[in-house]
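ARCHIVE CARD
SHELF: 3
SLOT: left
DATA:
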Amino acid sequence: MSRIVAALLAAVAAVVLVGALFRLYDDRSAPPIVIENPPETAEIVVVVEGAVATPGLVRLPSSARWQDAVDAAGGLTADADLAAVNLARRLHDEDRILIPTRGEPTVAPENTAVRRPSGTQAPRTAAQGDETATSESATGAGGKIDLNSADAAQLDELPGIGPVLAQRMLDERAKRGRFEAVEDLAAIPGISRKMVDAIRPLVTLGP
């Protein structure tokens, strides 16, 4: 009887030993687990102007938003006016971000002649005749910019609108024929309702 018990114990020990050897072999033969760093995010380059500590070009990840660009430019100055700026907007390569200061005109100084009230425009020289006539054709009553005839350069000067959004506005106008209401701009990617409200008093839809 003792021989049978001894044989059973030996068999169990052999099974345990074989199992341990197999487990050890599997552990050694399994490929090592390698944790790789995620690929670097592509960069974009944008220009930040206006009421920021250090205006200029900044490099950011492609997923960045306006707030990230402002932070990269040193943050806002004390007189920054965010009423017409949406810091949550996504950025695109070559975007131009303009942060206005409180009390300054919403249109760049070089565009003042286009926005001067009718009847107070400066005299034109012969050399300026054709260029000024083209600018006047894109303005309505009170010097407002006509959304249905303005070119990209004029649309670019609207608050919060840079070269990229100006081109999208032209593309949308070409697709729909003309804008019937200022609210139509909200259908353009990148233009928020808040931006539409800021643009509204500065534009017209033409005759």
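SLOT: right
DATA:
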Amino acid sequence: MSEFLLNETLTSDTVPVTSWPLCRVLLMNDTRYPWLILVPAQPDIKEIYELSLSDQSQLMSELCRASRALSNLLSPDKINIGALGNIVPQLHIHVIARFRLDAAWPNAVWGSHPPIPYKPKLLKETQNKFQKALS
């Protein structure tokens, strides 16, 4: 069995926030949207059904935990959750706080606008804010 390695695209597009029992929690490096990505820390998993039943349950718990934290912290109009995997095959689930006034509303965020990366100071502040909210 191989060891868990984070996909290189996820590594380059995100910054780590925390680790939970199943998932690594990442922040998408795009200031347009408060956007978390949960990645089950298991090797060679592409689909949710490939997880054990107990890990599927843990994933749902962690998705709800991330959604609740975003809701409590930011009071968005909607939380979007998606697991596409067409470009990055490693199982990862997007949890995005959406607002009626955001750049892509009401459409999906994928491909709507090029990302605007955080400047270093704001990135560190945002990481810290999310770490606190997700602990």
